[in-house]
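User: I'm writing a short report section on ligand binding and want a predicted complex to refer to. Could you take this sequence and pyridoxal-5'-phosphate and write out the structure as tokens? A short remark afterwards would be nice.
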Amino acid sequence: MNDLLIMTPGPTEIAESVRKAMAQPITNPDLDPEFFDFYAEMVSKLQNILHTENDVIVMSGEGILGLESACASLIEPGDRVLVINNGIFGKGFADFVRLYGGEVELVDFPDDRPVDADKLENLLKEDSDYKFSTLVHCETPTGILNPVEEITEVLNRYDILSVVDSVSAVGGVPVDVDSWGVDILLGGSQKCFSAPPGTTFMSISEAAWEMINNRETEVHGYYLNLIPWQNWYQKKSFPYTQAISDIYAFDQALDNWLGDEDVLLRHEKNGRAVRNTLQRAGLELFARAGFSDTVTAFKKPAGVDYDELNQIMADKYNVMIASSVGKYAKDILRIGHMGENCYEEKIYRTLKALDKTLRELGVELEDELQLIFAEETV
Ligand SMILES: *Cc1c(COP(=O)(O)O)cnc(C)c1O
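Assistant: Sure. The structure tokens for the complex follow:
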């Protein structure tokens, strides 16, 4: 198990510097003034990465905590929420909205391509009375990247706040919170930043804070409530003791990211090379358009069983790729090429393992996957 290469779309491989940061001696994060300065410094790194002056908070918990906190803190019973859906995470927001008493207006777009902002606008011309809208940046199960900028441009014209799940996109594709006008942007530690699962972050606009602060009813949930996170630095107080070792690791991962000038370009190049490779070998991508450079989803060749494929890849080649989830669990295979996974050597090793495994399972390919990839990356 030790040197298993985890080429899944999160959690991703962790750099040694990040792993070591977790092992640092800790302080008392509630009492040590230096910890508040350290946390403030980490926040400014994130503001830098997200291109925003909005508040950013880093919560202790996996990405889902961020999604649920945003819904719990914004929604009051009866609020109408527009849930933009072109995939499993997109639709999943509807559950959180209902859980906190919101009235869901689900707008469905085809799952195999990005959301069409013009079509969304046509719907809003009829009815735009929504408190906010939810949207997923990268639909991880299908590898589709939605055009956040085009969509928030429309939402902002109709004064609808936006909550964007960018968990599997931010850090791997360009994100520009302030110029796009995103109200809440959600991210996680274990995808493109390649820190261990355990922290989730979000940027919160002034308009979103105002909406949260003007609630008439209390937020249902303490851990999920964003209100106590305001002015933590002035108050020198967090709502609960911070998971300091996870935060040390995440902060180191942010330093690695900021010190890596080619990070976004590398995602773009390798994402394109993986897609071209699979197609040239005769495999079929799931998406018709709007490919994310962080994960590639392709149709599982007929007759291949994921568990068997996974077993062979792990036992013989020490590599793991992913199946998909929900209704796509049986039909899609996915290679995560985000964060620390997004290096040619790792992708080459993965494609070679996949090539040999598919052949062993009786799948015919046009040429060896790793050789095509080598051509695509010269
Ligand atoms: C990974 C991910 C999350 C976090 O959820 P988990 O499935 O628990 O890791 C949220 N949204 C998206 C789009 C993700 O890819």
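A remark for your report: Residues 10, 62-64, 89, 136, 140, 165, 167-168, 188, 191 surround pyridoxal-5'-phosphate (CB under 6 Å). The mean pLDDT is 97.
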